[in-house]
Amino acid sequence: MSHLEGPVCEHFQRAAEIVARRWNPQIVRVLLSGPARYRDLRAAIPAISDHLLSARLKELEAEGILRRSVSTEGPVRVEYELTPAGQALVDVIGSLAEWAERYARTDGQSRSTAGGRSR
User: Fold this and answer.
1) Torsions phi, psi of 107, nearest 5?
2) What residues contact 118, with CB distance under 8 A and at least 6 apart?
3) Nearest-10 crossing angle of helices 90-103, 24-31
4) Less packed terminus of the chain by CB within 10 Å, N or C?
5) Around 76, how many Cα atoms within 13 Å sit in the side-chain half-sphere?
6) Domains present along the chain, CATH in parentheses
7) What is the bridge-based pairing of β-strands 77-82 and 66-71?
8) Alpha-carbon dihedral 90, 47, 105, 107, rounded to 10 degrees
9) How far apart are CA 31 and CA 41, in angstroms?
10) Closest of 36, 35, 85, 34 to residue 60, by C-alpha
11) Phi, psi of 94, rounded to the nearest 5 degrees
């Protein structure tokens, strides 16, 4: 039996909830490039509010997806970086990005590989 057959297991459900939560994919995508400070994340995701960015960073840290590190040498510097669990999302985020380019067009036009027709 394929791992894609049968009922959705609780682990898949939990993973989908984490990855699909609003703004989480964008945060992970930015951090796939390397550690970033809060202001870097805010600049890379301009539509997110400060309140939501702070909340999502805390949630992703609690889930073990990212790590928050504080450097107290000189001015305090807080950086966020992906943990190995977060880095393991590279294929998920990459696949989502490819799917988005193909099917989630913002101009109202969807692309389809089936005969080049729009749906």
Assistant:
1) -90, 10
2) 109, 110, 111, 112
3) 120
4) N
5) 5
6) 10-103 (1.10.10.10)
7) antiparallel
8) -160
9) 8
10) 85
11) -60, -45
Residue whose structure tokens are 């985020």: 93
Neighbours of 96 (CB within 10 A): 17
Kindly report, residue by residue over 29-63, the tens digit of the pLDDT.
Answer: 999 999 999 999 999 999 999 999 999 999 999 99
Whole-number Å distance between alpha carbons of 25 and 21 = 8
Structure tokens at 43: 């600049």
Q: What is the pLDDT of residue 119?
A: 38
pTM (predicted TM-score): 0.81
For residue 78, list its beta bridge partners: 70
- 75 and 83 Cβ atoms separated by less than 8 Å: no
| The two structure tokens encoding residue 64 | 């073990």
Hey, what long-range contacts does 11-18 have (CB within 8 A, 24 or more apart)?
A: 18/63, 18/65
